[in-house]
Specification:
209 residues, mainly alpha, 8 helices, 65% helix
Length: 209
């Protein structure tokens, strides 16, 4: 087989939005598979969540966001994860996955430190709250008009959910919500460092001439 040198080289690189949709959808499918396995096991898998201030409970920091109490719990998180996760990854797959990792760890560690004794914290809602906070604040740190506009849209749609960072309904891990949101702000600040540095360089540039 020969190629025509006058034609552009073929590329297999898919558009960013397709990659974002694939990663987000794949993660949600994984959550449903894990819940199916949990139900088949008699709900034993979900016990591997965050058990605050216990050594064994530290493993829950890794597992808690992929475990759910029941189908209703998972269904409640599915659509927000699909929408918000997709929007986070649209900033770039590497950047979006890094933001997710920061939210995951901050939410888990914070919950492990201050969660109620003898409790088991599970659910992807920590990521949901982290994604909301990330999308709301990254435009502020980066001073990016497009990101600010998206943050406004996210606030209009999901802003009311932020009340969930406060103690309210018994059995709901407000600690996971709160520290998920904290992780979102931390991720937005950390991942806007390049924009802040570019802005600083632009500000000091004329003075150096």
């Amino acid at each position: 087989m020969t190629t025509n040198p006058y034609l552009p080289a073929p590329t297999s690189k898919r558009p960013l939005w397709q990659s974002a949709a694939m990663y987000t959808g794949g993660f949600v499918v994984l959550l449903w598979v894990i819940e199916l396995i949990d139900v088949a096991s008699g709900s034993r898998i979900e016990d591997a969540g965050i058990n605050p201030r216990t050594v064994d409970g530290l493993w829950g920091i890794l597992f808690a966001p992929v475990l759910h109490d029941d189908w209703a719990h998972l269904i409640a998180n599915t659509v927000p994860l699909l929408v918000l996760g997709f929007l986070v990854l649209l900033s770039g797959i590497g950047r979006g996955l890094t933001a997710t990792g920061i939210i995951w760890i901050v939410a888990g560690v914070g919950t492990w430190l201050i969660g109620g004794a003898y409790s088991n914290h599970i659910g992807a809602s920590s990521l949901v709250f982290g994604f909301i906070a990330y999308l709301l604040t990254r435009g502020i740190f980066a001073r990016n008009i497009g990101q600010l506009a998206l943050g406004v849209v996210v606030f209009v749609i999901y802003g009311g959910a932020l009340w969930g960072v406060l103690p309210s309904t018994p059995g709901i891990s407000w600690q996971g919500h709160f520290f998920g949101a904290v992780g979102g702000v931390v991720a937005a600040w950390a991942l806007s460092s390049d924009a802040r540095e570019a802005r600083r360089q632009k500000a000091v540039g004329p003075a150096a001439l």
